[in-house]
Amino acid sequence: MPHAGCLFLPNLLHHIVQRGHNRQTVFASPADYRHYLDILKEFSMNLDIKVDAFCLITNHVNLLLDSGSDSERFSFLMKTLAGRMSRYRNKLEGRSGTLWEGRFKSSPVQTDTYLLKCCPNVGIDASEKINLSPSLSPPFFQ
Fold it and tell me: What share of the chain is helix, strand, coil (3-state, %, to 5)?
């Protein structure tokens, strides 16, 4: 079951936003972006969640996800991304505590108008797969 504050509508795209705690830097180097994308790729494939587009900015993440009809997979992906990225950054910085500002925000994309509003945030070309090309430079945008 999704968290009470997370609206999930089956078989729709969802625009996801997750911000760094106090808008702090989440991605300080290209290796940080790559680490997040590696986790996203691995778990989205394992959970059969389609990543239609993404944009990683220094202090937050925008994703456009299609998780089908299973809200538990959707929530598990976001929980895994948050936890693994927090542990990664905490280890690098010798700190503890949360990296993220609470739980992710999820908005179902129910109209073409809203999808077009999302596009500048998550990438114009939503048809591409996750690309881990070395030529990408922050912010990662697809």
Answer: 40, 20, 40
